[in-house]
Amino acid sequence: MQISPPFGFKEVVPLQRTAAVRLPAPGELPAFARHANAIPISYSELAAACREYPIVFTSSDGGKSYALVVVVGLTRGENLFVRDGRWEATSYVPAYVRRYPFCMSRVRLDDVEQQQRLICVEMSYLDENGEKLFDAEGKPLERWAPIEKLLNEYEADLERTREMCAILADYALLEPFAMQANFEGGGQIALSGMARVDEKRLESLNAGQMKNLLKKGILGRIYAHLLSLENFPRMLARRASVSTETTGAA
Fold first, then answer.
1. Is pTM, for the whole model, over 0.85?
2. Can you give the residue ranges of every domain in the chain?
């Protein structure tokens, strides 16, 4: 059995009912969340995320498929919403981060991907001194209920995300774009590898396509995505503020 860990996870194993797990302390973040400038989000998160973060589409296979991410930093290894190892209390934390160290993973048996997904856990979080999530009979304890709910809801939401991205790609609505900025006194930032919805192409859709976007709730999320791009200037201001604080502290 082969299990490929998702982005940010190192080595995951199926969660056994007899396992004890070290659960993160309130506010504790995994390393990838502290040092990633983009975090995956899902369909239902667009409304909350668009208020603070630029939301863009990315592709790792040359445009055959796309994923949805929030931009949280403007350079590699930078998350501008993390201070002293914790996500800012007033900012929305993506479910991808909140579910850690658990995830739902597809497995491969004899090089064939299985449809059923397994609840997995980051292996380094297995700890005999950790917390039991099931009783001696294998029945879930109270602590497990909200974790399982988040995992199941997030996984279902990912399917809606994949469907949305597939429709946008099929309608040829996504276009690549880059973001560049020059700072006073020198220095430049450049972000690439992003895609956004082309508003002109959106306006040229036929009635059937537009009806489908409306029916599936995608049209509203397209506009949430487009509005979120206005957060790029705010990100630049935030980065300048963080740099000033760092310089002042030094």
1. yes
2. 2-143+161-243
